Amino acid sequence: MAVYKRGKVWWYRFTWNAEAIRESTKQTNKRVAEQIEAAHKTSLAKGEVGIRDRIKVPTLRDFIEQKFSPYIEARFLSKNNTLEYYRAGIKNLTGFVRLARRVAAKSDWVFPASTKSEHIEKSTLKKPHAKAYTIAKIASFPLYTFRHTCLTRWAAHMDPYTLGYLAGHSDFSTTKRYIHPQAQTVLAAMERARAAQSGHKTGHSADLDPIGRVA
C-alpha cells in the first residue's frame, strides 16, 4: 500500500493506466487510509471492465419525498394554487399503499414498461384497453372517455371553477368543454337564484322613498 504521511494526514499514491493518482484520505489513521486507497483502486477496476455498483431503485414514496416534492416546492414557491394541486395529487398517490411501496426491480423508472423508452408512454394502455372491451363484448371507445364522462357528471353538481381545479385545467376554456347544461339543471339553478334573492329582500323590508331614503 503506497500511503504516506503529510503532516498529520495520510495520503496515497499509485499509478493506474500510466497515470499517477495522488489524493488525501483526510485521515490520521494509517489503516483507514490504506482501506480508502484500496476502495479507490477497486472502483477504478470496476469501471474499466464495465462494472457498476447497482443503484437502489426508489419506491414511489421515496421518489416523491426525495426528488419530486422538493422540486415542486421550489419551482412553484410563489404559486399557491399550483402547489395545492400537486400536494393533493401527492397525498392521493402516497395514500394508496400498494402503489406507494412499488419498486421497479429491473428498471431505473418508477413506472417501467416494455417500451422503447422503458417507461410508460401515452400509448402503453392501448392494447390492454382494447383487450378489455373485446373480452367485455362492448363497442370500442377512447380511454379518455372515462375522464370526460366523470368531469361531465361532476359538472352538474359543482361550479365550473371547482371543476376546472379538480381537472387540473390551466385555461377555463378547456373546462367549458365538459359543461353541458341540461334543462333540469338550468331550472334548478334559477330556483336557487330566486330563493337567494328572496332571502336577501326579506332582511331589507323597510320602505324607501324615490331617492333611497327610509320613509
Outline:
This protein has 215 residues and is mostly helical. It contains nine helices and three strands.
Observed structural traits:
215 residues; 3 strands
What does this structure look like?
This protein has 9 helices and 3 strands, in the order βββααααααααα. Helices cover 50% and strands 10% of the residues. The protein has 3 domains: 3-48; 55-124, no CATH class; 138-201, no CATH class. α2 (60-75) packs antiparallel against α3. The protein is mainly alpha-helical and 215 residues long. It has a 3-stranded antiparallel β-sheet, covered by helices on one side.
SSE map:
Blueprint: E1 3-6, E2 9-16, E3 19-27, H1 30-48, H2 60-75, H3 80-95, H4 97-100, H5 126-135, H6 145-155, H7 160-167, H8 172-175, H9 183-202
Antiparallel strand pairs: 1-2, 2-3
Helix pairs in contact: 2-3
